[in-house]
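quick one, two chains, predict together pls
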Amino acid sequence: MAPVIVTEGVTRVYSDDGVPVHALRGIDLTIERGEFAALVGPSGSGKTTFLNIISGLDTPTDGKVWLNGKLLSRMSGNALSDFRRDNIGFVFQAYNLIPVLTVEENIEYVMLLQKIPKSERHERVLAILEEVGLGGMASRNPTQLSGGQQQRVAIARAMVSQPATIMADEPTANLDSKIGAELLDMMSRLNMQTEMTFIFSTHDPMVMARARRLITLKDGEIERDEVRSP
Amino acid sequence: MLKIAFRNIFRQKRRTVLTALAMIVGFTLSSVFIGWSDGAYSDIISMFTRNRIGHIQVHRAGYLDKPSLYDVIDGYESIGEKIAGVEGVEAWTSRIYSAGLGSVGDKTMAVQIIGVDVGREVKATRFDRKITSGAVFSEAAAREAILGVGLARTLKADVGREIVLVTQGTDGAIANDLYAIIGIAESGDKATDRMACYLHIDDAQDLLVLDGRVHEIAVIAEALDRVPKITAAIEAQINDTTLEVSPWQVVAKSFYRAMQADRQGELIGRLIILLIVAIGVLNTVLMSVLERTREYGVLKAMGTKPRQIFGVVVAEVTFIALGSIVIGAMLGAGLNYLLSIYGLSLPQEFSYGGIVFQTIYAAVTVQSLAIPAVTVFVSAIFVSLFPALRAARIAPASAMRAH
């Protein structure tokens, strides 16, 4: 398997009222294509900071990040935007759908940025909606959906442009356990079918139970890196 | 992006209404302000030109700077015929001016003798409408005089009495004669009315020994905005370097300059309106950007470029501005139309350039809509740039932590 993400000595230091706070301390990590991995650890361990850095949403104070073989620190703002658009799908804890767009418009947003023709966009949206169990809901507004349905739309939005990696930050935190489990099973299935890499930042034992690799962070360092068999 | 911008308008309806209200009120105030001002100045110019000086005047070169009894126009009838042939000329008339003394009974006053060509003056400047009592001159000269209302009051003169005029003729001799007062005239210009003593042009030529010559030819144009072109055409038609053809702005230089200076004052009004719009828009747009910080962060995370986020904010303001301009234009044009019909009566009359006004009428002009439209649009877009930049610069990682 080829590596999708490689980090080398990634360090992130925040300034809190002039006092330096070490969120990450020299993390070296390689994630292979098709992994279903979870970053776990207590609050403040640096999970979200690390996820943001490997997604190109934040920059490390020190160290290097390669995503799909590209060194992120070499990219300008616009190039990084394009790179995120084409290579990463995001799933957030709070779903973060655009409230003024319908389900279909939310899902096709990234494809629109990629200038994919309308007919193809429409086809792909309908297919992925079936895939996530939301067939027939394309024209609904996000406010007309339950939390679980909104998160399904968010997953569909993240996956529809077929990025190499899906970054999911606490995707089940706002859902009840039944719906959370359903969504995780769905993502696991999609991971198997598509070979997209899934990286979670989570506290949720259900995610940990399904992850095939558990990377435990503590005080900004990798405490344990455990690969499990499916 | 445009879809998001457009739909964002309806997201926080109250905020959109507030933003639009700032623009609509700004537009309407500005439009009425300009329409009213255009109407008032147009009335003033019209009164000043149509009723008095005409739109264009022809004199002997140098007469306007230093009027002299001896700077006369020879053969004015043929010149007048040439002027009448110029396209856009509605009417023309000739005049004679001289200073003198006028006596009625035991009262004597300095007067301005104005010889008028009755038939043409009526057609050009509606001279007959200025007669407040008595009558206008008969066609043929009959030793008759019409006094300005102020002069008549000072001399305690009335229709039916006689006035003795003493002046100097072009032959250098003292000229005097007795005229029957047949009318009292009110031109609307108090300074003129205090001194004017109108004579039939033949009587004036006779008194001043001018023998078929005049000092001035006044021309009325069909439209005020065509005056510059008509002035040039008359100049070409007359083709006489000893004569000077001047538009009303040159004839009434100080009046025109005062009016232009007054209009500069309107800029302050426009600035205030611009501030109303700017503060209203800045406040609400900044608020909406702050509220949507997380959303912009998500859009950026998904690959939206900063300039596209910038465009969403500016486009939203543009949509609101365009809608507000349409509503503002309807309100502004409607109010100006009503004010152009009914006018606004002032509690006290006011005088401008010697012309007295009691009611001011607005006008629906292109600039009463175009200037507010440009002002509102530019100021709205300008103040939206700061919140738009702020939105464009949002760091996605920290934005998504925002609540």
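The longest strand of chain A covers residues 3-16.
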